[in-house]
Amino acid sequence: MAALMLAGLPSISMAEDAVKLTPEQATNLGVRVVHPVASPTDKTLPYPAQIVIPTPQLWVVSSPVAGMVTSLSVARGDRVSAGQALVVMESPSFVAQQRDYLQAVAQEAQATREFNRNTRLMESNAVAQRILEASQTEARQASIVVAERRQMLRLSGFSDESIAKLTNEAAINATLSVAAPRAATVVDILVSPGQRVEQIAPLVKLAQLSPLWVEIAVPASNIRAIRAGAKVEVEGYATPGQVVLVSETVDAATQTILVRAEVSNNGELRPGQTAQARIGFASSAESAWELPYSALIRRGEQASVFVAAPGGFRLVPVTLLEEDQDHVVVSGPITDKDQVAVGGISALRGILLKLGAG
């Protein structure tokens, strides 16, 4: 009986991964076919995404000295310009910095006068060479100390104009205004009026909000077709972005891979919001085809489909671009004129594998 059953089976060609079938045999095996449907290459399944601030565009303004916060000049969400006051502080340390600077200026002036006097005396051989050299060294060292103290004042937020005024008028100020280093948006206030802070304590968090990052969670099974440079569309937002990173690691909990896109922001996108994003998964040189999920055949990492050929079907390798529970999108050597099997797949595979004997 087994011999009679095998005698009636279609023949196969393993070298070409082809199954030879007559139309009647295909019908008896329940084989059904469909034509591939062209899938637009700039539209993919929507993936969950979050809008975040790029880390190079996020920075914290810290306290240059220890002191007490007396007032805040900005609030969360404010846009600030370079040099605009953010926080006003009172600081004994700041007073000490100004005093040390003025003392250094006075010492430099004294050392310079001494050097100039010895230079004149040297011209008449009234002092030894070593005395002139010693006074020159002292003048040089005094100049270095002044440069150091001046730089400390700059780091504390003093402008060159304020330093010049301090030098000329010796008017020491106990109040310090901490300014924004560049134009930005205030994303967080980290202190309150009346709070005492140490030197380098964080005061205000600033950020540049264009461009922004769109961080997209893509199922690991769909990642192969996504490449750096691919077009990204955020639903509800007209300006497209571009993939700048495809992570090399998988989130163990969700089995998704981080894809990061960069998109310019005209104010419609806001950091922290969630969105849906679609990623371009094929280049302009590729064609993408949508098929029912049942058409896909997996053999290890390789995806294939059965395509009708003269005298039967042949197994055609394809690249899986994306999938859900109902359909797949693939690219490969198929066209919309081909007939792809979507029914009777198990029978075709069984024949190709010699009824499981292989």
Topology:
Layout: H1 2-7, E1 12-13, E2 18-20, H2 23-28, E3 32-34, E4 37-39, E5 47-52, E6 58-62, E7 67-72, E8 79-80, E9 85-90, H3 92-123, H4 129-155, H5 160-169, E10 175-179, E11 184-189, E12 196-197, E13 202-207, E14 212-219, E15 231-234, E16 241-250, E17 256-263, E18 274-279, E19 288-292, E20 297-299, E21 302-309, E22 312-323, E23 327-331, E24 340-343, H6 345-352
Antiparallel strand pairs: 1-2, 2-22, 3-24, 4-19, 5-14, 5-18, 6-13, 7-9, 7-12, 8-11, 9-10, 11-13, 14-17, 15-16, 15-18, 16-17, 19-23, 20-21, 21-22, 22-23
Helix pairs in contact: 3-4
What is the string of helix and strand elements?
HEEHEEEEEEEHHHEEEEEEEEEEEEEEEH
Instruction: Please tell me the overall pLDDT.
Output: 88
How many helices? The count is: 6
Low-confidence stretches: 1-15
Over the alpha carbons, how many angstroms does the gyration radius reach? Answer: 37 Å
Q: Provide the β-strand percentage band.
A: 35-45%
* SSE class: alpha+beta
Outline, from the CA principal axes?
A: elongated
The count of strands amounts to 24
Q: Summarize the biggest pleated sheet.
A: 8 strands, antiparallel
Name the helicity range: 10-25%
Distance between the termini: 21 Å
